[in-house]
Amino acid sequence: MINGIKASIIFSVTFVLSCFVNIHESKAQGFLRADGKKIVNENNENILLRGVGLGGWMLQEGYMLGINNEGQQHKIKQRITDLVGEQETKVFYNNWLSNHTRKADVDSMKAWGFNSVRLPMHYNLYTLSIEEEPVKGQNTWLEKGFSMTDSLLAWCKANKMYLILDLHAAPGGQGNDFNISDRDPSKPSLWDSEANQQKTIALWRKLAERYANEPWIGAYDIINEPNWGFEDPTNDKNGLKEKKNAPLRKLMLDITKAIREVDQKHIVIIEGNGWGNNYNGIFPLWDNNMALSFHKYWAYNDQASAKGMITIRDEHNVPIWLGETGENSNVWFTEAIRLFEKNNIGWAWWPLKKLGNNNPIQVKSNHEYDVILNYWKGDGAKPTAEVAKSGLKKLAHDLKIENGIIHYDVIDAMMRQPFSNETKPFKNNTIKKNTTIYAVDYDLGINGIAYFDKDTADYHVSTGINTAGNKGRVYRNDGVDISRTPNDSYYVSHIETGEWLQYTIDVESAGVYTIVLNVAAKDANGRLSIAINGRQMEPIVNVPNTGDYTTFKTVQLKKIKLNAGKQKLKVFANAGGFNFNYIRFIE
To answer: The domain containing residue 327 runs over which residues?
Structure first.
């Protein structure tokens, strides 16, 4: 993890050129289209979409801001207004929309190896709600959303990246998972209101008319994650067991018809009910230029987990695309991308940035904003308007990529590790006299090659059991558990027997060294050892009882001969139950 700086884009390019291999770049020539089970360009070249979704930009979801309850955007706005008033709330949201996604973000995505962007759109940036329309049944168009989309498209075109438009929040809201569509259940939903459906159709016609001749618009993803129980709304409110999906099919057909009135060229992407995966009753398809989107989270990444999608692709001779996936550990990311690409399935990761480290960019919180969050959680007093204003201003400022934290471990896990067992140094570990390497700076690479950890990802959809994957959830996103002290010192924690970490070191001068390891434990049962280039060094060292897991003391391995140059050093937990902070080399 490297703090964002103004030179972050230059560093990003350097990192890509030096570390990433086997990147399938788009050779885009003209419009994308469906060709049987493939997506191709006008040269009939297979295009494998490798994208990122801009979740949180036009549509905030509470968890992306550290809010765990009442996470609909309109609720968040109400809370902010309660703290700072309407005018300052407008200032915050103007800053949010200006700073969240900029050309620098798109430039970085291109440099990291992505070839597409998925834009989750909130309808209320493009048109008024039906309740606000001055003339019932008419559509008032708002320039803000179209202008933002135009800017994003320009940045994508400059980078030769495809932009996929995704209606994430449809008029009225398309499901009973309120946060993802900013639905207000006190008002008519998309499915309860003919006016909302007509507005949705009109919006897509307007978008298609505007972008009909834009080849860098990759596709129209017409309704994100519908989740609605049409037949049994009481017992199946999210439509997981829906058999017919008749209203969903009809609306998607009507939207497609409206698009085709003005645009014959772009792919129309549809999503099933039940958060995108229930396609009962949707077939047969009604257009010859369509693709199906599936969403995949927290499940195994074996071939069996893709069987349902692949079967539908084969039976209906239609391309499939993972329109949303992510929100897990680096191990899961590498497994998933390896699975998708082996089966020629493109993907869009979710999301690019948020408060939290399991995405390419982490937005930093700040003390004043933490005060706001504590108040909203019921754990603190209401902040003054000035404190709240300051916290929100800093939060919006830190949305900029140069102020965020770039997680190169996440990017490496997505772009290089699915195709390579090679390890790379996380940092330049040149060994001189009294050199310290921090335990958390182990090599980049897959589990079992760069490190070994027993609990690496969250597979609860497949197992029915919630596993942490990473118990610390700071600094890096691998299976390795990393924790933080109050003074922001990081250490490897929850070490189990048999786990290990590898460090690529570059020894400046050959010699005999004392290797010092800083450890903490609440008992004296832990044991560790090291290996150099696969050769076990003696002896195995006992980890002392230091009093608790955050009181660190050193143990030593003396007379360790190191040759000059690069070599691999591994630290083994012969018996676990301790934490590990750093390695120091004393000549």
So the answer is: 2-57+100-363+398-413
